[in-house]
Structures are given as C-alpha cells and as structure tokens.
TrEMBL record:
Listed EC numbers: 5.3.3.2
Recorded GO MF terms: isopentenyl-diphosphate delta-isomerase activity
Protein's UniProt name: Isopentenyl-diphosphate delta-isomerase
Keyword Magnesium among record annotations: yes
Co-factor requirement: Mg(2+); FMN; NADPH
HAMAP family: Idi_2
Assembly and interaction partners: Homooctamer. Dimer of tetramers.
Entry binding sites for Mg(2+): 173
Residues where FMN binds: 77-80, 108, 137, 204, 234, 305-306
Length: 372
C-alpha cells in the first residue's frame, strides 16, 4: 500500500511501483517484441466479396453479452497500475465504454480488496458506465491463498459488476520475484466459486492462451465464459524480465518470451472443445481486421488491452477515437466479405484456411453468459 515517509509525504509501496512499472514497460514496448510469439491471426485470409449486396451503413455489429446488448463485439480488457494512475485510466475506460456501448473488464482488484488503494475501483465506475457489461477481476492463485466467496462477492459489489473474471497467470507468477507459485487446488476452488456465486464466472489467461482441453475442464466445473488471452500480445515473461534487476532471473524469464498458444489457434481450439460457450478472443488484437479474424476463428466478442493503453493514459476521447477506428475497420471487413451481421462474419469464406480451422463452425449462437 502507499505509505508516508518521515516528512509526511505519500510514497508508493512495492506493489504500487510494480504495477506502475508494468504499465511503463508495456507502453514503451520495451519487452522484447522481436522475440514475442505471433497471434496467428494473420493466417486468416478472407475471400473478398466483389459483390457484397449490402449497405455499409446497414451492417449490424451488435451482439448480446452477459445479458446486455453491445453496439459492437468488443471488450476493453483488463488493465492495471498503481492506484492513482489506475484510477485515472479506469475512469477514462468506463466513460469510453459507455459512450461506445462496449464491455469493460477491470484489472486485478487484489490491492483494493486488501485496502491498499482503490485505483478507481468503486461504485463510481458503474455510475460512469451504467448500461454496459462490467467485469470484476481476481487472480486464480488467490483462491488457494485464503480468498473465497466472500472476497469474490466483495470484488463484484465493489464496482457493481455483471460477472467476475478469475485470471490465470502461472507463467508470470513463476518468473516474477516473490510470485505465487503453489497452484494446487485452483480448479476445485473455481468450481466451488461457480456453484456459490450469484454472477457468472469468466476465466481468462493473461497472454499465454487457454487450450481446448483446459477450457473443457473449466466449463465442466461451471465456468460461464472463456477468454483465451492468447500469445502474441503482451508477454508478461518479457515484462518481468525487463523489470527485474537479477540477471539470472532475467535470463530465465527471457527464455519464455515466445511461450504460449497463439491467439488464433487458442480460439479455434476452445471453440472446438466447447461449441456453445461464450468465447472472448483476446491477445495481441490491435485492429478491426484482427477483430474480424478472431471472430472467424470462433470468438463471440474480442478483447483489447495493450493496444488501448496509450490512448487510456491520455484521455477518454483518445480511447473513443481508437475504438471508433477499430469499429469502422470491422464494419468494412464485414462489408467486403458480404457479412451483414457478426454471425455471418463468423462463417465468411476463407482463402486457404489454416489446418486448425479445418472443421465447420456451428450455426448461429447466442452470446449470453447468463444462459450458458
């Protein structure tokens, strides 16, 4: 938590500094991008529709998610930072999400739950974004370190959330100094939470992907939504390597900078294993074309985090402009594939589809986690 020095000045705690360092490293792109895994989304090539027989303005990008209608299939994914900085960022993201009609997931609420600074994570967030899905967030490892239903509901009620994300980050914890590395019992803890909590549980990775095999186990345990958060975006191993001053720990962390399941393959794998689960595709998605590619792989909605961070660090309007460009690009991608809806885009013809998209996709699905 933040503390005061002998002069009475507020100074940041170790965890505050670590969270702020994470933002600075991601913003500077100083986390070994050249060694990073690729999303695989570039392998998805749409067949161009020279006769779309559509009106560009008439294309419907809306979808249902967590019982609410989104104007576009987008989720502002979890971001974090030291409490003061996170507060400003969360305010801007909430204002932008409401203006755009898209979903918002907050970063880890552990610091706020333990009384070490709110980071803007209170009911004011719901006041700023009253009509869109809002997702709370706790790390999976915390549920074998004493957290339970009580802490989970506090996280949900703290911001008036529609669902709770349980994030999985074993690689980051393993390469981080002092990380939480005993993960025995995480799945049973998630299963208990699914049975007892009165809101849907979303499970997401943080940048290394979720396989179809793991997703199936999570869904069987009662999880309502999967967010693959695949490799190809921010490498948290690379971020931790950049941050540490220990050369041996840095060397080990750097060996894992390209670790994980690429976003495209993770989405397709989970969709095959769990045909009806509401599925969020995230991990290195930066443009509206990549949103379209993720949807064609099997995602119902698509998350962005790092691609939004620079805008969020500046102003609400910059966030809005960023996503307006993403939405316009997605609309054009729909137009040029002859897709009048997101459901149609999910079945748009491809040129030389990769092997992991060899099977047919199921027909239209409803993206309602509350009915999963």
């Amino acid at each position: 938590m933040s503390m005061r020095n002998e002069s009475g000045e507020t100074v940041p705690s170790d965890i505050d500094r670590r969270k702020s360092d994470h933002l600075d490293i991601v913003l500077s792109q100083g986390h070994a991008r050249r060694d990073r895994a690729t999303t695989g989304l570039g392998d998805i090539r749409f067949e161009h529709a020279a006769l779309p027989e559509l009106s560009l303005a008439g294309i419907d990008l809306s979808v249902d998610f967590l019982g609410k209608r989104l104007a576009a299939p987008l989720l502002i994914s979890s971001m974090t930072g030291g409490p003061d900085r996170a507060g400003r960022i969360n305010t801007r993201l909430a204002e932008a999400a409401e203006a755009l009609g898209i979903a918002l997931a907050v970063g880890s609420q552990r610091v706020a739950l333990e009384g070490r600074g709110g980071g803007g994570l209170d009911r004011s967030l719901r006041d700023l974004a009253p009509s869109v899905p809002l997702l709370a967030n706790i790390g999976g490892a915390q549920f074998v370190l004493g957290y339970g239903e009580r802490e989970a509901m506090r996280a949900v009620e703290m911001i008036g959330a529609d669902a709770l994300i349980v994030h999985l980050n074993p690689l980051q914890e393993a390469v981080q100094s002092g990380g939480d590395t005993d993960w025995r019992g995480v799945l049973p803890a998630i299963e208990r939470l699914c049975a007892r909590l009165r809101v849907p549980i979303v499970v997401k990775e943080v940048g290394s992907g979720i396989s179809g095999r793991i997703a199936r186990r999570l869904v069987d345990a009662g999880v309502s939504v999967i967010d693959v958060a695949g490799a190809g975006g921010t490498s948290w191993a690379a971020v931790e390597a950049e941050r540490t001053e220990d050369p041996r720990r840095r060397a080990v962390a750097r060996l894992f900078t390209d670790w994980g399941i690429g976003t495209a393959r993770a989405i397709a794998d989970v969709r095959t294993a769990c045909p009806s689960i509401p599925l969020v595709g995230s991990g290195g998605v930066t443009t509206g074309i990549e949103v379209a590619q993720a949807i064609r792989c099997g995602a119902d909605i698509v998350g962005q985090a790092a691609a939004t961070l620079k805008a969020a660090d500046r102003s609400t309007q910059d966030v809005i402009v960023h996503f307006e460009d993403v939405i316009e690009t997605l609309r054009i991608a729909c137009f040029c594939t002859g897709s009048g809806t997101i459901g149609a885009l999910a079945r748009a013809p491809l040129i030389d589809p990769p092997a992991f998209l060899g099977g047919p996709r199921p027909p239209d699905r409803s993206v309602r986690a509350d009915e999963a």
